Amino acid sequence: MLPAVALAWLWARRTGERELGVAFATGSISHVTADVPWHLLSREYHELGFLLWPITPMPPYTGTTTLASLGGIEVTTLWIEAVILVAGVALWAYDGASGADAIRDRSPG
Questions:
Q1: CA–CA distance from 31 to each of 15, 34, 93, 94 (Å)?
Q2: Which of 17-26, 47-56, 86-95 has the lowest mean pLDDT?
Q3: Of the candidates 69, 68, 62, 27, the residue with the CA atom closest to the CA atom of residue 48
Q4: Over pLDDT 70: what percentage of the chain?
Q5: Are the CB atoms for 74 and 64 separated by under 8 Å?
Q6: Any idea of the CA torsion for 98, 101, 103, 106, to the nearest 10 degrees?
Q7: pTM for this entry
Q8: What pLDDT, on the 0 to 100 scale, is given for residue 109?
Q9: Is the distance from CB of 20 to CB of 13 less than 8 angstroms?
Q10: pLDDT tens digits, one per residue of 34-73
Q11: What single-letter DSSP state applies at residue 51?
């Protein structure tokens, strides 16, 4: 991950697109940071091999993990991720949807 972030940062500096470099670094680092707690909470430490890929092999994708069962309904990591996604999009929209103008300005037409 760090080599990809470094390359993106160098490209962004060279092309004058520093905001894209910051966005890529923030997204990459926060994505990995968000993936780790699920494996720690479910005590699936063997799943953390992705952190050092390609030095360590990638673990096979196992899908969602059940965290609890409430009234016959299984609460999985997918539920929590959905709540985080909705909250993030709502906060982004409430904050003025920063970055949307830059995307619209770059699109052809």
A1: 25, 5, 20, 22
A2: 47-56
A3: 62
A4: 95
A5: no
A6: -150
A7: 0.48
A8: 61
A9: no
A10: 888 878 888 888 888 877 777 778 777 767 778 888 888 8
A11: G
Number of H helices, E strands in the chain: 4, 2
Contact indicator for 20, 5 with CB cutoff of 8 Å:
no
The closest of 40, 42, 39, 105 to 74, measured between CA atoms, is 42
Q: Which two tokens stand for residue 28?
A: 């990459």
Strand partners, 70: 73
Say whether 65 sits in a helix, a strand or coil: coil
Tokens, residue 53 = 């890929």
At which residue do the structure tokens 């063997």 appear? Answer: 46
CA atoms within 13 A on the CB side of 41: 13
